[in-house]
Amino acid sequence: MIPSIHPQGGSTAGLIAYLYGPGRSEEHTDPHLVASFDGLAPDPGRNPYATEEDLQQLLDEPLHLLPADTRPDKHVWHASVRAAPGDRTLTDAEWAEIARRVIAATGIDPGDGAGCRWAAVRHADDHIHLIATLVREDGRKPDHHRSGKRAQTECRRIEADYDLHRVAPGDGTAAKRPTSAEQHKAKRRGRDRAAREELRETVRRAAAGTASETEFFDRLASAGLLIRRRIAPSGDTLGYTVALPEDRNKDGAPVHYSGSKLAPDLSLPRLRERWTDAPTQPTTAQASAPASTRRRATGALWQAVLLIDHGDDGTVAAQIAAAGEVLDALAKTSAAHTRTQLRQAATAFERATRSHIRAERGHDRALRQAARDLVHSGPALGRGEESATGAMLIDMAFFLAVAAAAWHAKRNHAQQAVAALQAAEHLRAAYRTAAAQPMAVLQQQGQRLAPHVQQRQARLVHQALPELAERVLAEPGWPALAATLADAESIGHDPTALLAEATRRRELDTATSISDVLVWRLRRSAHLPAAPDTRPARGNRRTPPAPPAAQLTTKAASDLTRGR
Length: 564
What we know:
The chain is built from 21 helices and eight strands. By secondary structure, it is an alpha+beta fold. The protein has three domains: about 1-160, BirA Bifunctional Protein, domain 2; about 190-260, no CATH class; about 285-560, no CATH class.
């Protein structure tokens, strides 16, 4: 149940005409009254003898209790209450009771016998509109301070009472939703999303890893947006607005949105906070090395996970906000076969980057550098080392999203925790796609290892993970881990020490495939190629049969395609 308090207006007649009219896209069907302050208000929708003027005059009558020169200019209070997607269709009687509860909770008509006059109009299955005159029957102003928060609180109770979808409580840090008019406009023009949503995503990605205003505005221009800057007499930029070239109003002018209207952290002052102590140059040779850039970004995310677990709140908030930039940069430069899921992950995680805990900038330099490097290194290919290091990075991003969700949940940031978990699910799906080919090759290499080598690697796992060893050895990814341990040992690493370092983190508890996670951690820390060499090995070595722990059963192979 989602309530929205709209800006106050000055025309009761105008709002009534809209509510009872066809709507901007003929979307209003059977407009009619479901409730009113006295239960006797005329209904111009279903009563052929009632007019819209009758309803307007009844609602505005308390205005005449005040001298003409003291009547408020903006006396029309307007709210809508919408059922969540998937909720059952409520009856008129149920909507009437919901209207009375919301009106009472907001202070418009608290039930003292002298509240404001109001009416509830329904012209769709999933929502109602509430209209009221902001003068009480006793001539006083209503106490409707923080009516939006009051309505939200009451709607949480209504959801429980009516067994409806429980919407996570908000905290005022979410980006503004598109209005009904914006949504209908997008639908008329055959667009999947409203202009506000498209602009928010474009501006957010343009800001990822930027180091200055100049770079930010250059990226906006490169993205094809129309930009207006608000300039002070001194010549300084005070703010900005953006518009899609094809999004026009009825007069043919572009519809501009300020950064703050797209999302709280996209205002120019908030963006400038990012640019304090920001990295100003791409790292050496990054433009030609997407694979090495992804390796460095994986290391930065690993350190961020450590800070989320053990840092103070301001530091953690900065890490999570900067991680959002990394996801935006990764989505922007990902290979085509993972791009959709990564974009969805970045969009979901955007909500997790904002809370009332202020980010302490400066602690996020490594992640912001990673985002910057990803953007400047350019798009990665969907094969070879670039694809494999992409899987490595996505794997670590998954664990960061899970850690962020746990951190938010501990602080009762319900919406942010849900958003981080949604992002984690999209990252899991992207990982499956990115890792399928390199993991399959590693599994084949592991199955070709000599039996005594496989047995030695199994003993190492038993020593390092005594409680999880049997699970690891039964996983489809175990041969890939065995091959990785053998590769690390062949270039002089101590596999026991590598395993001890890789298993020190609690994130293994949340992994669908522990062996997959260890593969990427070991290959990163041992500086092994992420994409295994697929050339035939020298010599005429016989390929021995795999031991039972390494065999891929039909069920295990199916599991591999479904989860990590």
